[in-house]
Amino acid sequence: MSVKVEVIEGGVPHNNILVAGLVSTLVCLYLTYLNVLTGTQLFSFFGGLAMVAALVWGSHTIKVLCSYGIGTGVPSAGMIAFGSGVIAMLLATKFGVLAPVVALVLAAVIGFVLGYIANNILNMKIPAMVQALTEMAVVGALSLMGFAALITGGFTFTGLTMIPQKMMLTSTGLVASYQYTFIGGGLIAVAFLLGAIAIQHPFNATLGPGWKQDRMLMLTAECGFLSMIVAAVMSFAFINVYWALLSLIVAIIGWVYTYGQYMDMSKRDAAAWLDAKPIPEVEGH
């Protein structure tokens, strides 16, 4: 039996955040496909924006799930989001332009199965578990796809596993070297951790009696842009230096703005507690 120990009062309903996050993420991912249509890498930065949008949605999903008293599950929620999402993301990249939609469907199925196992086999019996794990698997898959598009300029399997200009001399002649790719070079593992930490940290950092929805979501965006800065730096090894620089500039501007907004909200909420009075002690107790 689980007891919901914390409720979300006011603010934007979770379903609204879900729809806004999903639509924004898919739109930004498909905007990166303009790289293929135009033959440039100009639109790679939209991959980073897709990742940030997905993380904002995902952090609120963690808030909904962990309101049922599983405080120690906050970090693990971030890990299961990307651990299940990476499976769907890798399979979906084989479907070309349909990859984001396929990733969404596959991740939803994986998340639903994990949620069912958690509730009905492990007997966690948390009302929001199935929906939350379904959402987080989708968030993980689409976030990783956003990272991939930001770093390499695309989200198809070929683009993530092969760079034609990087060749290696072997006994049989020149062959493509996969160690210089997003997957072969292990950058997918870096993206995994950048996303998993960014999605779980905001609720951990803002939970408590003074929790405010807008402050937590702003912190999520700030963490997302901070991860985008790191990913943009890595993109210099894969895409044109000017477009990589554009991604870095967008990430820095986004981080500076969201960090400033988060600090203002933190000061606002800290000041709101100045008028708080101590709990009165009852005579004789």
Structure, explained:
This protein has 285 residues and is an all-alpha fold. It has a domain at 14-75 and 143-163 and 190-268. Helix content is 67%, strand content 3%. The protein contains ten helices and two strands. It has helices at residues 14-32, 34-38, 45-66, 73-92, 99-121, 129-152, 157-161, 187-206, 213-235, 241-271; strands spanning 167-170, 173-176. The protein has a two-stranded antiparallel ribbon with strand order 1-2. Strand 1 and strand 2 form a beta hairpin. Helix 3 (45-66) runs antiparallel to helix 9 (213-235) and helix 9 (213-235) packs antiparallel against helix 10. Mean pLDDT is 85; it is low at 1-7.
Helicity range of the residues? 55-70%
The beta-strand count equals: 2
Q: What fraction strand?
A: under 5%
What's the N-to-C terminus distance? 32 Å
Secondary-structure-based class equals mainly alpha
Question: How would you sum up the global shape?
Answer: globular
Widest sheet: strand ordering:
1-2
Question: What string gives the helices and strands in order?
Answer: HHHHHHHEEHHH
User: Unreliable runs, pLDDT <50, ≥5 residues?
Assistant: 1-7
Count of alpha/pi helices? 10
Radius of gyration, in Å, reads: 21 Å
Roughly what is the average pLDDT, rounded to an integer?
A: 85
What kind of sheet is the major sheet? 2 strands, antiparallel
